[in-house]
Design goal:
Blueprint lengths: L1 H13 E3 L5 E4 L8 E6 L10 H15 L3 E4 L16 H7 L11 E3 L10 H5 L3 H4 L3 E3 L3 E4 L3 E6 L7 H4 L14 H18 L4 E6 L13 H6 L1 H6 L4 E4 L5 E5 L6 E5 L16 E6 L3 E7 L3 E8 L4 E10 L2 E4 L4 H8 L2
Parallel strand pairs: 2-7, 3-4, 4-5, 5-6, 8-9, 9-10, 10-12
Antiparallel strand pairs: 1-2, 3-14, 7-8, 11-12, 11-13, 14-15, 15-16, 16-17
Amino acid sequence: MARSLVLLSLLSLLVSVALAGLTTIEHSLKEDGSLAILVVGDWGRKGTYNQSLVAQQMGKVGKELDIDFVISTGDNFYEDGLTGLDDEAFEQSFSEIYTADSLQKPWYTVLGNHDYRGDVIAQLSPVLQMVDCRFICMRSFIVNAEIVDFFFVDTTPFVVKYWTKPKDHHYDWRDVAPRESYIANLLQDLEYSLKASSARWKIVVGHHTMRSVSKHGDTEELLQYLLPVLKTNGVDFYINGHDHCLEHISSTDSPLQYFTSGGGSKAWRGVYTSNADKVQFFYDGQGFMSLKLTECHVDITFYDVEGQELYKWSMAKINRGAFPSSVSVEAERAETTT
């Protein structure tokens, strides 16, 4: 408990409020100027559907890479979010699963649509950090690590069907409704922050897919409202979950790269539908992603539930240009067998 309180106090010192309303968390780089992170999404199932196995491999890779933090792309607690601050699912799906020493780092987390089916205010509450100080969840915020800005975006309110055709589900729209005003303000804040950013790399993180060839496919509302903001402001990558798979898709009309890391537990949907952009890699199974950054170079790797490297992709940024490297032989072979 003492260690948790100390870490929580240190974290609170790092948080400042941006002028346009998005909270910014400052995160330092390693001494050599690099950053290493893991990305996982759609995981919160109390260890079932291989969640525990994915967590074990994350611990091993996290140790090898000496990661600085973890990004969660949402759907943190199935099926219907948390019921409140005292919901045991928080520890059963998070604290008791991701136990490796290497994963005892900040988890920067966005909400998914399943999280919105529960008590959103509870999941956003800093009180949960008294239970596990790693869990940092906000609707939309920025993590600045000097060479890179991560812009975390709350994508669930964009999707119209959750408002108009919720079926038997209840969505917690407190502090969100009315939808139109919320989205307009969020896009304004995001664009302001993107334009103000002087970071070498700009990465946007959301739960919902922008481009995907799996079950959920493209999210039309994000293509309509969010994508133009990303393209106009030179965003390098959009990282998401929602589809329970691993994939890399390249835009055909911009340098933007789309990465899905939604294989934290239940997967194997058996759906593949091509879209207008270029599919570089698709794996219809469980796993996670790593990202290593320096000022001029990025390495991205996808891993399966056994910790095997499925796909590696690198990009060097020289001056203002971006030049992707070729995919390795192993990555090409993995892609053709999935």
